[in-house]
Design goal:
By secondary structure, this protein is an alpha/beta fold. It contains 9 helices and 11 strands.
Length: 297
């Protein structure tokens, strides 16, 4: 028979184990300050320097986008091609908007993508962005760098990673959803950061796959500004309740926030780039904000 003293020891060890487990699984930020593409208003988007600057500013979450290369590498990029606004091609040539889709990342190896600079060209919409020579990084390399760089902080950094895909361009600009998702999850698992990752998308097919195949991951449903359908209808299309509802900030109302909170869903709108709207949305009760200018927080 187990004596009373032994029961006390067993109980203490159980509580200790629970405490250690809780410490190992960091809590989601109370208010999530997300740097959009790192901090696009200040640094070249979706680059390692942009993520470092976001960490220096104090973001709780680094927001980014990923695409897939020809050799099945997960690359950090908003478009699955080289955007004319930010790209300098070999020979110091700027791309024209009419030809940018010819520079299809899914038809390039990772090594080939490194011939294109995405930090030197002046950005037409973000004139204050610091200019530097930089290329699109592998997701793995970005995470490795951010993990080392953020060790100076008292709290770990979170990652909000968007899958850039759509039905019309399957197997043209990116693999079909299942392969895309598997490649992404393999990188995240290899980096051992699953409990600090949210995966978001406008392409609900990828979110549905993650919910089915990798149900332990947190999911954020992105909603475009023109999608005026009721929240219930949007969730019906998704097929499950996500951890985060992330619409364009113009769609946020007190009713939307109340509906989400009643279902234990966090509300994190995008992309809020002025102090007044940041203040207004915080007072309304959102759980976080995605901004190109996280210095405004």
């Amino acid at each position: 028979m187990i004596r009373a003293r032994e029961l006390v020891v067993i109980g203490f060890l159980f509580l200790l184990a629970c405490h250690v487990s809780k410490k190992a699984d960091p809590m989601f930020p109370l208010f999530d300050k997300e740097g959009h593409r790192g901090c696009r208003g200040l640094m070249p988007e979706n680059t390692i320097p942009a993520m470092h600057r976001g960490i220096d500013i104090g973001v709780t979450t680094l927001e980014m986008d990923v695409v897939i290369t020809k050799d099945k590498q997960v690359l950090v990029s908003h478009e699955p091609f080289f955007n004319h606004e930010i790209t300098t091609a070999p020979g110091n040539k700027y791309l024209d908007e009419k030809e940018e889709r010819k520079f299809n990342i899914y038809q390039m190896t990772f090594a080939e993508t490194q011939q294109y600079d995405v930090g030197l060209k002046p950005h037409p919409r973000f004139p204050g962005q610091q200019k530097m020579k930089v290329t699109k990084p592998l997701l793995k390399d970005l995470i490795d760098s951010a993990e080392v760089y953020s060790k100076k902080r008292s709290t770990p950094v979170f990652y909000n990673i968007e899958t850039k895909s759509q039905p019309e361009t399957d197997n043209i600009f990116h693999p079909a959803p299942e392969e895309f998702v598997d490649l992404l999850i393999n990188v995240i698992n290899s980096e051992a950061i699953m409990n600090r990752v949210i995966i978001q998308s406008f392409d609900f097919r990828t979110l549905q796959l993650i919910q089915r195949k990798y149900p332990r991951f947190k999911i954020a449903a992105l909603v475009e500004e023109y999608d005026k359908r009721p929240f219930e209808e949007q969730m019906k299309r998704l097929g499950f309740l996500p951890a985060v509802y992330s619409p364009a900030y113009s769609l946020i109302t007190p009713e939307v926030i109340k509906e989400c909170h009643s279902r234990n869903i966090k509300v994190i709108p995008w992309t809020v780039n002025d102090k007044e709207n940041i203040r207004r949305l915080k007072e309304m009760g959102v759980d976080g904000i995605i901004s190109d200018f996280p210095n405004l927080f």
